[in-house]
Amino acid sequence: MTAIEFNHQLISLENKLSRFAMSLTSNREEAQDLLQETYLKALSHRDKFEGYSNLKAWAFTIMKNTFINNYRKAQKENTHNDTTKNLYFLNMSKELSPARPDNEYTRFEIKKEIDNLSDEFRKPFTMFLNGYKYKEIADELGLKIGTVKSRIFFTRKKLMESLKDFQ
Questions:
Q1: Domain ranges of the chain
Q2: 13-24 pLDDT tens trace
Q3: Which listed CATH number (3.30.470.10, 1.10.1740.10, 3.40.50.880, 3.30.450.20) goes with 3-77?
Q4: Which of 62, 4, 7, 19 minimizes the C-alpha distance to 37?
């Protein structure tokens, strides 16, 4: 495919790409920026497009991947790094008000219900609460990952049923 044919076919996709960009961003200006970025990438990487394969699918894939990469970049920019010497912001209490007695009572009741569970349900659930991943729990307890997931699910369900008053 010649450069002129490539450019002509790419420009003929403008309406479809615009609608797709709008469906991804829900914002006219961001959609236009995404469209321009897609065109720029498609034109600069024209040599990677193979002959007469599906240009429409190729352009849509570029747009989708560009949107995902921009989204991920924006999420990283919203992350705050605590650069204070003593990690003041990370160690700062999230709760602004002092602990209330009913909160302590609720925590005690939930802990009591968890402690009343049988070992086969309590161990995976407490490991999950402590930040372990399903795979880590499965390896540690010698279980299949599906078993771990179902036990955690059924434990949640059982706790929600027994702690209805706290919802």
A1: 3-77, 102-166
A2: 999 999 999 999
A3: 1.10.1740.10
A4: 62
**Rounded to an integer, what distance in angstroms lies between the CA atom of residue 14 and that of residue 160?**
51
From residue 28, alpha-carbon distances to 18, 38, 129 in Å are: 9, 15, 42
Give tens-digit pLDDT for 97-118.
555 655 666 777 888 888 888 8
Class of domain 102-166 as given by CATH: mainly alpha
CB-count exposure of residue 10 (10 Å: 0-12, 13-18, 19+): buried
Is pLDDT above 60 for 124?
A: yes
